[in-house]
Amino acid sequence: MSEQPKDTPEPSGVDLARVALRAAKEAARARGDAAQQKKQARRGGLRSGAGADGRDPMAFGAAINRLITERGWETPAAVGGVMGRWPQIVGEDVAKHCEPEKYDEDERVLVVRCDSTAWATNLRLLAPTLVARLNEDLGHGAVRMIKVNGPAGPARRYGPLRAPGSTGPGDTYG
After folding, report:
1. From the centroid of its chain, how far is CA 35?
2. Other Cβ atoms within 10 Å of 120 Cβ, number
3. How much is the CA Rg of the chain, to the nearest whole Å?
4. Strands 145-149 and 98-104
5. Side-chain half-sphere of 146: how many Cα atoms within 13 Å?
6. Which of 11, 47, 127, 155 has the most CB atoms around its CB within 10 Å?
7. 63-84 burial string, b = 16+ CB within 10 Å, else e?
8. Which residue has the higher pLDDT, 133 or 58?
9. d(CA 76, CA 79)
């Protein structure tokens, strides 16, 4: 028998603790709601009133925040917010030439693509300052490293005019 590879990594100690804490909070809240419903039932039944109770519909923003908290997506959501505010964090000049591509949550690495090798070099020199600024905004340790990629080369073309064994134009980029 061969095991199927898992798409998602197993939760680590901190993630397990977050999940256990959320589950305990939800259980305590449910116990409190059940006790309140028993009291109401003794007083003449459950009635809807002007006050808010657990049966009321939830606002969309509250539902999204609850989902983010339950799933432990706080850091990826915060990094997504940083990607939206990239020009304010790095400055307009840098933002014109460099843009964040993706965030690897497991490695805590932010991948940034620059439109020229000169800007890639410049951003590599600014990387420690940017990591400190991002961690100040997101929380300590959210971003461990910034990986800077230079411009992407042209698409490699394969065809009858290609020399056997050549790597194409890719040897001059990157």
Report:
1. 38
2. 19
3. 25
4. unpaired
5. 27
6. 127
7. eeeeeeeeebeebeebbeebee
8. 133
9. 5
Determine the Cα–Cα distance for residues 109 and 73; give it in Å rounded to an integer. 16
- Edge to edge, the sheet with strand 98-104 lists 98-104, 109-114, 145-149
Where residue 171 falls among pLDDT bands split at 50, 70, 90? Answer: low
- 149 bridge partner residues: 113
3-state SS, residue 52 = coil
Using a pLDDT cut of 90, give the percent of the chain over it.
5
CA dihedral over 47, 53, 58, 59, signed as positive or negative: positive
* Helix, strand or coil, per DSSP, at residue 150: coil
Tokens of 99: 């843009």
Strand partners, 111: 102, 147
CA 84, CA 75: separation in Å to the nearest integer? 14
Q: What is the pLDDT of residues 46-74, one digit of tens each?
A: 556 677 766 777 788 888 888 888 887 77
For residues 108 and 124, is the Cβ–Cβ distance under 8 A? Answer: no
What are the E-state strand segments in 105-168? 109-114, 145-149
Upper half-sphere CA count for residue 132 (Cβ side, 13 Å): 3
